[in-house]
Amino acid sequence: MTLIDQALLDAVCAEAAASPRRRKNRNLHPDDDHPAHRLLNAMQPDSYIPPHRHLDPNKDETFVVLRGLLGLVLFDDAGGIVRSVKVGAEGSALGIDIPHGTWHTAVALEADTVFLEAKAGPYLPFTAAERAPWAPAENTSEAAAYVVALKARVTG
């Protein structure tokens, strides 16, 4: 049993702050092959998750914010923003369910933002068709500017 309490959130946030990627996953499922993935995802405001999609029809994703404020951005196939929403206690929603095949990313709008993520396993690396060709690569100056621009577009 894993208790999801403030101490666990504090610990995973500290790990995210110390990580070069400025985010940290804490898996609640036993291994990458498990059929039901549940994890805590802690993010700092300067973290960048490249936009992506999950093409597997079993890989709808659910995010529920436990701490902080998350900006969730949905895109069309050309990288245009279709919808953005603030998710968290101060946002317009507490969670979001993202259908498979939907281009999306998340940005932390507050320090130490943590969300619970659930999706089907097993873990598989992204395929080329699941990576957004119009988005900058991670660890580039373009990525840092893109995060700032995305945050400015998160409206609701």
Describe the structure.
By secondary structure, the chain is an alpha+beta fold. It has one domain (6-153): Jelly Rolls (Sandwich), CATH 2.60.120.10. It is 17% helix and 34% strand. It contains two helices and eight strands. The chain has a five-stranded antiparallel sheet, with helices on one face.
What key phrases describe this protein's structure?
3-stranded antiparallel beta sheet; single chain; alpha+beta; 2 helices; 156 residues; Jelly Rolls
Which structural class should the secondary elements be placed in? alpha+beta
CATH fourth-tier homologous superfamily: Jelly Rolls
Helix-strand sequence: HEEEEEEEEH
Number of domain modules: 1
- Radius of gyration, in Å, reads 15 Å
- CATH architecture identity: Sandwich
Low-confidence stretches: none
